[in-house]
Amino acid sequence: MTLPPVAFQGVPGAYSDLACRTALPGHPTVPCASFEAAIEAVRSGRAGLGMLACENSLVGRVPDIHALLPTSGLRIVGEHFQRVEHCLLAIPGATIDGLKRLHTHPVAMGQVRRLIAELGLTPVIEADTALAAEQIAARGDPADAAIASALAAELYGLDILRRNVEDEAHNTTRFYICARPDADGVAAPIGAAGGTMMTTLVFRTRNLPASLYKALGGFATNGLNLTRLESYMLDGAFTATQFLCDVEGHPDSAPMANALDELRYFAADLDILGVYPASSFRSF
Description:
Layout: E1 6-9, H1 15-23, E2 29-32, H2 35-44, E3 49-56, E4 60-61, H3 65-68, E5 75-83, E6 87-90, E7 101-104, H4 106-110, H5 113-119, E8 122-125, H6 129-139, E9 144-148, H7 150-156, E10 159-163, E11 172-179, E12 197-205, H8 211-221, E13 226-234, E14 237-248, H9 254-266, E15 267-277
Parallel strand pairs: 1-2, 1-3, 7-8, 7-9
Antiparallel strand pairs: 3-4, 3-11, 5-11, 6-9, 6-10, 12-14, 12-15, 13-14
C-alpha cells in the first residue's frame, strides 16, 4: 500500500520535516515554501496530509495557522508534539574553536543565547534552520556554523559539533495533522482508538458584555477541560473577535454536546475543525 505524502512548511531537514518522519514514518514528505502552499498541496491532492505547526512551548502560537485553517477546507485528523533539539552543525573538519558566525532562523537564534555568548559567535539570520544548514554546506567555510536538526546534518553532510544546545530543555512544537474531509483513507482520525479525544473549534462572540464568559460557561459546568484558547481580530475590526479552542472530549459525548449547545446560544459561526485522538505526549 502506498502511503499518502505529507506536506510541510519548510525545506528538507526542517523541524516540520522531522515531525512528519517521526509521526508518520514511511510517508513521503513534500516541502512547501509557506503554510498557504502546504495547505494548497493537501487541498489539490498533491499531498494526502499536512503537518502544520500550531504552537510552541517557548514562543506560543505559530502565526497564520489560526487564521488559515478555518477557511482552508481541511480537517484536523491528528496532533503531534515534536521536541525541538537544536544541534550545532558545521562542515566536516570544522572545530568549535574555529567558528566565527552562527546561521539560523531568528526564533532558533533566540533559543541559543547562552551558546552564542559562550563561543563569541556573530549571529546571522536566515529564513529557516534547515536552509541555514544547506547554505553553510554549500559555502564550505569552517568558520560558519548553523543551528538546525540532526536530520538537517544528515541530509546536507554536516558534522554535529554539539547536540541539545538550546537554552530551555522543554522546547516543543505542537502540530495539527490535517486532511481533506473527502479523502479516502486519510480523513479518518490518526491515532489509537478508544483513548481521549480532542475537539478543535472556532467561534465568534457577539459584541456584548460577558459574551465570552457566557459562551464558555458550558464547558465549565460540564466538566470539560480547555487546553487552548486563542483570540484574534476579524477583517481589521476591533469589535468582532474570533476564538480558536482545543477541548478534551468528543462532540458525541453528553457533556460536550451540552457545552456546544450552550456555546451555540451565546456565540456565532461555530465551526468544528477536527475531532481526533489526543497525543500520548499529553500524559493524561
